[in-house]
Amino acid sequence: MKPEMVLEAFYGFLGEAYNPHAIQIHRKDVYAQEQGALVSLGEMGEDIG
Predict the structure, then answer these.
(1) Hey, CA dihedral for 29, 33, 21, 7, is it positive or negative?
(2) For the chain, first and last CA: distance in Å?
(3) HSE, side-chain direction, 13 A CA sphere, residue 30
(4) How far is it, in rounded angstroms, from Cα 17 to Cα 22?
(5) pTM for the complete prediction?
(6) φ/ψ of residue 38, rounded to 5
(7) Residue of 24, 23, 1 whose CA lies nearest to 11
(8) Pairing between β-strand 37-40 and β-strand 31-34 as defined by DSSP bridges
């Protein structure tokens, strides 16, 4: 779920105008589904080196 979409829906629920340039989003981590479980992208794949 994209945080921008959540904020846009929340502002719409409040009856306020959403300005995407007025808010800065800092993502701590990004997840993906792997075999039905959520996995951090940092944990996916294999180490190269």
Answers:
(1) negative
(2) 33
(3) 8
(4) 11
(5) 0.55
(6) -80, 130
(7) 23
(8) antiparallel
